[in-house]
Amino acid sequence: DGKYLVLAGYASEPGLASIGSTATSVVQRVLARVDAAGHVDTSTRLDVAFNGNNGRSATSVDGTSFWAADNGSGGTGGVYAISLGAVGGTQVLAGNVRVVQVIEGQLYGSSGAGALTNVFAVGTGLPTTEDQTATSLPGMPTSDASPFGYALLDRSPSVPGVDTLYVADDRDLADGGGVQKYPLADGS
């Protein structure tokens, strides 16, 4: 809603060496909410998510519910949903996920590993329960891509909903990397 900045981080004092590889039993992962006045709320903690890895991204619709993404050992990676001030979280999608965003009421993610090598919708709407399905956006590559950041835009008044996707792919340019544009045409 434009009222908060949301960040993924750690429940630790600054300066802990190799913090990204710490176990969540040693250092829990934290979602921070920063308001326009600069007030920081770090009361939201993921207690098992992203074990041995770092939180890559977080998103929210209104600053009271969050989704965070990363990889993690032992099946602790993927996308987690959690409410403001809660400890725990629910793994709504397992895997290695880089960036999550809520766009027009739908949760999206990106990944460059495993079966998820593109930009995809996570479940339907804003899921908060386990075992959601990742649905690749139509026309996206299903292998060999390596997307990180992306933007979905509603640019055409004649097409309902989002119709243009920009993707930052970290592969070499010769291998198809760089900034890519995917306009929606005939459902693909």
Topology, please?
Layout: E1 4-10, E2 29-35, E3 40-46, E4 57-60, E5 65-70, E6 78-83, E7 87-88, E8 90-94, E9 99-103, E10 106-110, E11 119-122, E12 134-136, E13 147-153, E14 164-169, E15 178-183
Give your account of this protein's structure:
By secondary structure, the chain is an all-beta fold. The radius of gyration is 17 Å and the shape is globular. The protein has strands spanning 4-10, 29-35, 40-46, 57-60, 65-70, 78-83, 87-88, 90-94, 99-103, 106-110, 119-122, 134-136, 147-153, 164-169, 178-183. 34% of the residues are buried. The strands form four sheets. The protein has a four-stranded mixed beta sheet with strand order 1-2-3-7, with no helix packed on it. The chain starts with a strand and ends in a 5-residue tail after the last strand.
* Mean of residue pLDDT values: 92
State the total count of DSSP E strands: 15
Give the low-confidence spans: none
What characteristic shape results from the CA principal axes? globular
Strand content: 35-45%
Distance between the termini: 29 Å
Radius of gyration based on Cα positions: 17 Å
Count of DSSP H/I helices: 0
Helix amount, in percent? under 10%
Which structural class best describes the helix and strand composition? mainly beta
Main-sheet strand order equals 1-2-3-7
| SSE order | EEEEEEEEEEEEEEE
Please outline the major beta sheet: 4 strands, mixed
